[in-house]
Every structure is written in structure tokens, then in C-alpha cells.
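Feature request, filed as a ticket because there's no other form

It would be nice if the structure record came with a short human-readable summary line next to the C-alpha cells. Right now we just get the raw output. Example of a typical job, pasted below so the devs can see what we mean:
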Amino acid sequence: MSSILDTTTSTAAPTNSNPAVAVPQTLTANDFMRILVAEFRNQDPTAPTDPTQYASQMVQFSNLGQLQSINQNLQSNQNPQSTLMQAASAFIGREVVAPGNLVGVQNDKASAIAYAPTANDAYTALVYNSTGVQVDQVSLGVLTSDSLQTFTWKPPSSASDGQYQVKIVNSKNVALGGLLEQGIVQSVDLTTNGGILLNLGNLIIPASSVGRVAQPTSQI
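Raw output as currently delivered:
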């Protein structure tokens, strides 16, 4: 699913031929709600949009102001590198969400997966190690359609630190799409080209893929 932020920023912001007049290039939460309502009203009733897309969009725009503020700090503090790192450290201790189906395990604790069931059904989480071998199966019970859910894996004692792939399947063993990786940023790092990498505990995601940033937390 392409990010609604990418597809609407250019259309929502008016063009201006006068370089002396600055034009805002960011969307507010109210802008997003208007866009989301418009999507509901104008979708094709014979081929409605996958509800997981709406759930993902809502997660992406939750606490949008905080994410925009951090990004603005990063853009305005590109040099020197130490200043950029200081700005990037604003992510530490915050919970972030980004597209993906991986969890990181560190010291017997795992990051989480957010997902939205597409129908009222019984769901199961399947967990695989880095070689593709299934290491766990967790019943999630009967869940309601379109409800945003969070799966936090409790690794068995045999599970070593590292990354694991998660699949959420229904009673017919059909996997859900639109999964989101969720966790608390424990450290940050800079790439050689000036990018920001966020470490959620053996799970590294680029800051550019983050769609949600929550309030700071002491649960590091």
C-alpha cells in the first residue's frame, strides 16, 4: 500500500509561483480526517478498499504533529553530524510504527506487530526464525473485523535473540496483509548518506519509514 502521505502532500498543498511566499508542505490531523472521509465516500461500492489500508493510514497519522516536529528538527540540523545525531536522539524512548512483519527479540522481550482483521474470524500468529523454520504458534482468538489489534510475542526459552517473521492467519490459513512493526526505540544510528536508523531491540528500521511516533516512555 502506498502511503497516503506521499500521495496527498502534493495535492493538498497549493502551488505558488511567488518564491517570496512560503507555502506549508505538511498535513495536519484534520487534513487527514477530511481525506479519509473523502476516501470512504468516493470508493467504488462494487470493489471497496481493503479495510486494512484504512487502519494502516490511521496508525500512520496518529500523533502526526510529533513526527513532523522530529522530521523538521532533523532537516534543520543536517550539519554537523553530532548535531544531527542529537536531533535523531529525539526518537529514543518513543514508540514507533512502520510497515513490516518482523519482530526483534532481545533479552527475552519482543517488539510487537499491529494488524487489522478483515473479517470476524479466529486468528493465529505464526512465528518463524531467520531460516524460515516455524518456532511458535499463538492463538489470538476470535477477533472483530476492522479492529486494530496488537500481537506481542512472548518468546519461549528456546528462542535466541534476533529477528523473527510473523504471519497472522485466519481460520482458513490465509495470511493478513498490511502488518505493521511496532516497538520502542532503544538507540539510533546514522548511515553514511545521512539517513537515520532506529533500533527497536534487534529490529532496525529507517526513520523515513516511520508512520507514527508516540509520547516518550520510560520503558526502554
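Something like this underneath would help us a lot:
The chain is about 25% helix and 30% strand.
The longest strand covers residues 134-143.
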